[in-house]
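User: I'm new to structure prediction. If I give you an amino acid sequence, what do you actually give back? Let's try with this one:
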Amino acid sequence: MVYNFEGIENFRELGGMVRLDGARVKEGLLLRAGHLGHASEADVRRLSDMGLALIVDMRDKHERDRSPDKEVPGARNLWLPPAPDLPAIIPMKAESPAQVRQVFHEFYRYLSLHPDAIEAYAGFFRELLAAEGRPVLWHCTQGKDRTGVGAMLLLSALGFEEEPIVGEYLLTNRFAARQLEAMRLARASEEEIAVMAEVFPVREENARYWFDCVRIEYGSVQNYLEMALGLDPEAIARLEEAYLE
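Assistant: Good question. You get back a string of structure tokens that encode the predicted 3D arrangement of the chain. For your 245 residues, that looks like this:
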């Protein structure tokens, strides 16, 4: 389900997704989005009404300092950055669409195997387990890459196959299309639009590459969940009990 907020972009939930065996993700509990720094007062009230127990901020320090999340009554805000110093990993200025595509390709390997990313996503799952089925929101800046990997990991832990996981990941491109249209209306140059047409969307090949990196290094996604992130069968069962119906 996609939500429309005044100042929060790319907001949606995993609720309603159905596993092959018919198990369904409970609605209103697993929420993903872009950052909350531009949330309006009405947005904050709406988030509070959702009963959020936890907000996981996956941005780096520079991003947080530039646009701090608005406080949501009743919710604890926790910082778990998979890439603590993003500018050191991703060049902030790219000269061509091909360069952007290569940078993001390498970033997805980082998000699969780098110790900082593994530590952050392991912490994400510890917090999900501690939330015991209460609503949790996780986000980065645009809610697409670091947030998207969080969603892919969570859906994998809940027993979903790769195809629906990638399908959910690609929903970000509805948001990306609006961003690009706004650039065109603002009369951005064709060169700028061409570069940002690689920055704003998510690419299926990056999601597939993330899965490939995990499988090559660990043999399977399930092995990765247990060996890298510490999710043993008991923890998986607790997640399923909390978030599936």
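You can read the tokens as a compact description of the fold. Here is one thing that stands out. The longest helix spans residues 97-113.
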